[in-house]
Design goal:
globular; two-stranded antiparallel sheet; mainly alpha
Length: 251
């Protein structure tokens, strides 16, 4: 629990500082995740480093404007896909290349969200709903127990935990709406995103089961790897970015 609080504190500080600090944290997390994804795919150290180098190119273009002067989101997104294609043609391993998108896309989404006028609030919403969902699911599941959510993939997850996670995430969003003006479209979408966070958790559990490992890594003592901590955020961040940008699509 202490480690979890510490990680949330680091993320919150980087979020508050924004700019280079938030970008650096995202880059470091993505590169660690890429290393863990490569490990789950059973590739050697040389191939792992190559995938990290490929991912580092689009990550570099996600830097704040103070570093790269001009931001081109569509070009960066295309380069992210291009990096995945590069990994496919050099390794002939499509599942390995998928890791480029898995690790890079959520960072790309978070950088876009943080750059908006209400970026701190919107990014805090995206992060906190995942944190709240994890906390609510953990304590509700342990307290109430009950039927398993997906016993073959993750024996410890329960339906009561899923419901508890959704309820707590929704409550956090409601507070952000009432106290800080979080837009209604994001507040109402929070329960769906909380479910999506749990699906991201289950997907990573399935990856580990296929690979025959308990944790994605050991960089975080007692908490496994970076993927183990961010698996719920991976599917949530792109959808959250879409909701944040939705008014611009209608303009």
């Amino acid at each position: 629990m202490v480690a979890s609080v510490g990680m949330i504190a680091v993320a919150s500080l980087a979020l508050t500082l924004g700019g280079i600090a938030f970008w650096v944290l995202g880059v470091v997390a993505a590169l660690f995740m890429m290393a863990e994804w490569s490990m789950l795919q059973g590739v050697d150290a040389k191939t792992k480093r190559m995938t990290q180098f490929a991912l580092s190119v689009p990550l570099a273009l996600m830097a704040p404007a103070s570093l790269i002067l001009v931001i081109h989101d569509f070009f960066t997104l295309g380069l992210l896909v291009g990096a995945a294609f590069f990994v496919v043609i050099t390794t002939r391993k499509p599942k390995l290349a998928l890791g480029i998108i898995y690790c890079g896309l959520p960072v790309f989404a978070l950088m876009i969200i943080r750059r908006q006028d209400e970026g701190i609030l919107f990014t805090l919403w995206a992060l906190s709903l995942v944190w709240a969902c994890d906390i609510g699911a953990f304590f509700t599941g342990r307290t109430l127990g009950g039927p398993k959510l997906a016993p073959v993939i993750s024996p410890n997850k329960t339906w009561s935990g899923l419901i508890g996670g959704v309820v707590l995430a929704s409550a956090v969003a409601a507070v952000l709406h009432m106290q800080y003006g979080l837009p209604m479209r994001m507040t109402l979408a929070t329960p769906m995103l909380a479910v999506l966070a749990q699906m991201g958790d289950l997907y990573e559990s399935w990856l580990k089961r296929v690979a025959g490992v308990k944790d994605s890594g050991n960089i975080l003592p007692g908490h496994g790897g970076v993927m183990d901590r961010l698996d719920g955020l991976v599917p949530v961040a792109p959808v959250a970015a879409f909701l944040v940008l939705l008014p611009h699509f209608n303009a």
